[in-house]
Design goal:
The structure holds two protein chains of two kinds. Chain A is mainly α. Helix content of chain A is 70%, strand content 3%. Chain A has a two-stranded antiparallel ribbon with strand order 1-2. Chain B is globular, with a radius of gyration of 24 Å. Classes of the chains: A mainly alpha, B mainly alpha.
């Protein structure tokens, strides 16, 4: 809409003595421009339909089918892919496993089927704790970088390093440092088996994740801070607001849109976390995230894994949607504004 | 060349002036506080990386020595990492380069078209297309992984390059479109108009005016896409299906071994360093552009 207005305005600005130009301009009417746009966008949408759309539709379809395996009732091998209704979903949600007599009982502990809710708890727990830590520390980083005069270049360089290291390498690095004989125990004077007992393992993952991704959140917040005009602070200062008042009444409200977008993006990333816990602890000792559970299930039965990945995707969607509403985050606003 | 990137980075001067230290007598505590927190940030960010550096050059027998300086220095870890007898790390680096190059090329070629249309042309359903592209990048990898695993399994594609490269487009293409659209939206497109007023054909205007202006933005985007591909682990680890022939470096590092009875920590750190150092060099050389690229998609005003 706005672009069309732009075109008209530009057409109006044309000097009258340019007949050839006027013709080309008049030729670029909206339908033609739109047709060109659709042609340019089509390959991207087609490719996304192929690598995202199709797999997701297929996953949802598969989630209603049986996995290949021995038919408990007949004792014969069944190729699978028969209609199974919601059984794959009840398997995960109600933790019901097939029993030898052909009925359903609650899954034995240790079976993947019994781990659904604990993996949801672990995933959501990591997300809440890690994103909260990253936001608070990232805010501190951003405020410092915003003020820093001398060390600005150094901080900018330093902050990009945790971000630049591949997560797989980060995980190995923290695994080495969290070794029972590693440097962290030596520094703290402790003897934790960090990666092989429940709460230390969980803490280790949150610590490593916070280290790696705080820089990213700090950069996003800094971008928001730099859009606050200096006069706003001057005015608040003249009105007698102290540093804390200036932070709560000027900085926070004005940086909130940037902060909200950063929190939503980080939450989305943490909810699908896989690399870090998988490499650091192997997903053992209460660190199995939903993504790890899906991969564990994958080779044991792809159709029930599809139900699990669909549940994971719904869970992430619901939480992200709730966060967007709660924080009033405008994920598209920034982009739409730029496009305009 | 650098003019476009300069405009995408928020000008730091006015904001910095607001917190400029007041000149005068006595200690300015706020400056001291900023200096201290600056130091804390630098140490926080660099200490683990420094430790990786120290361990990568340390004799494996002294893995657990807490000497904070470079001691028991050796290059054996690097020799070991590149020894194909022990592990496929060298091969995995080539795999990462190959997969990253293909993924980046495909995403950039298709992404530039889409981003140009989104930033520059008017058409119905633009908001919908943006939503689809942003939405696609938000799907958890596992949501597409299960059906792809089955599909590739039935095609005998598991452990092939195409099985590793193709699914990566699901996140690299949205990333490319998103970043490029933000960059393109800020380009001085009226220069193109001006060139055409001066008699250039649309092809000439694009080639002589727009392309040189857009090149830095496209380069930055390509770097971000390549980094994302270089870092990818979930899809690669599952779809390579144990084949070390095609597995990228992230998978090789996660499975790094050093034979029986050895905790391969120092060797793993050496391999990790080899994977990381090129990225750090690129990031340091292009830091301003990378930061504007990272923030361009996310936040404007």
């Amino acid at each position: 809409m706005t672009v069309a207005g732009h075109v008209e305005r530009r057409a109006g600005e044309n000097p009258p003595g340019g007949p050839r130009r006027t013709r080309t301009r008049r030729g670029a009417t909206r339908p033609r421009e739109a047709r060109r746009a659709y042609l340019l966008i089509a390959p991207a949408l087609l490719l996304l339909a192929l690598v995202v759309g199709y797999p997701i539709v297929k996953a949802v379809h598969q989630s209603f089918l049986t996995d290949p395996g021995l038919d408990k009732a007949t004792g014969m091998f069944d190729e699978g892919n028969n209609w199974f209704g919601l059984h794959n979903y009840t398997h995960w949600l109600l933790q019901q496993c097939a029993s030898p007599d052909g009925g359903y009982t609650s899954c034995p502990s240790g079976a993947l089927g019994s781990q659904f809710w604990s993996s949801v708890g672990v995933t959501v727990g990591f997300t809440v704790v890690a994103v909260a830590l990253e936001t608070v520390i990232g805010m501190g980083f951003a405020l410092t970088m915003h003020r820093a005069f001398r060390g600005r270049a150094l901080v900018r360089v330093a902050i990009l390093i945790p971000w630049a290291i591949p997560t797989a390498v980060t995980s190995k690095l923290w695994q080495v440092m969290f070794d029972p004989q590693g440097v962290i125990n030596k520094l703290l004077g402790t003897h934790y088996a960090w990666t092989s007992s429940l709460w230390p393992a969980r803490s280790a993952i949150v610590i490593a994740d916070t280290w790696k991704t705080t820089p990213f959140i700090a950069l996003l917040i800094l971008a928001g801070l730099q859009n606050i005009p200096a006069e706003t602070y001057e005015a608040a200062k003249i009105d007698g607001a102290n540093a804390w008042r200036r932070f709560t009444s000027v900085t926070l409200p004005l940086v909130k849109p940037a902060l909200a977008v950063a929190v939503v993006f980080r939450a989305l990333d943490t909810l699908r976390m896989y690399d870090l816990p998988q490499i650091l602890t192997g997903g053992s000792n209460g660190t199995t995230t939903s993504s790890i559970l899906v991969v564990d299930q994958l080779t044991r039965g792809a159709n029930s894994a599809s139900a699990l990945s669909t549940l994971t995707f719904v869970l992430i969607f619901v939480i992200a949607f709730g966060l967007v509403r709660l924080l009033n985050a405008n994920l598209f606003g920034a982009q739409a504004k730029a496009v305009r | 060349m650098t003019t476009t990137t300069a405009t995408t980075t928020a000008p730091p001067v006015p904001a910095a002036l607001a917190s400029a230290p007041r000149r005068g007598r006595g200690i300015n505590w706020s400056t001291v506080g900023t200096a201290v927190t600056t130091m804390i940030i630098v140490v926080w960010c660099l200490a683990p990386f420094y430790w990786m550096l120290v361990l990568a050059f340390r004799d494996n027998d002294h893995t657990f020595s807490t000497d904070p300086w470079f001691s028991h220095v050796t290059l054996d870890n690097f020799r070991y990492a590149f020894n194909a007898e022990y592990n496929p790390f060298a091969r995995s680096l080539l795999n990462s380069l190959l997969i990253g190059a293909v993924v980046t090329a495909v995403s950039m070629v298709i992404g530039v078209f889409a981003a140009y249309a989104l930033a520059r042309l008017s058409f119905r359903g633009k908001g919908f297309v943006l939503t689809v592209i942003l939405g696609a990048s938000m799907f958890p990898g596992v949501a597409i992984l299960t059906p792809l695993f089955q599909l590739f399994s039935s095609w005998h594609w598991l452990g092939t390059y195409q099985a590793l490269a193709l699914p990566q487009v699901s996140f690299s293409l949205p990333l490319a479109v998103y970043t490029l659209t933000s960059f393109f939206a800020e380009m001085p497109w009226n220069l193109e108009e001006a060139a055409r007023v001066d008699g250039a054909t649309s092809g000439q205007a694009f080639r002589l005016v727009i392309l040189p202006l857009a090149a830095p933005a496209m380069f930055t985007t390509a770097i971000l896409v390549f980094l994302a591909s270089w870092n990818e682990y979930l899809l690669s680890s599952v779809l390579s299906n144990g084949s070390t022939e095609v597995a990228p470096s992230t998978v090789a590092i996660a499975n790094f071994t050093a034979g029986p009875h050895i905790v391969p920590y120092t060797q793993t750190m050496a391999a990790g360093l080899i994977v990381t150092v090129p990225l750090i060099v690129v990031v340091l050389l292009l830091q301003r552009r990378i930061v504007s690229g990272l923030t361009a998609g996310g936040i404007k005003g």
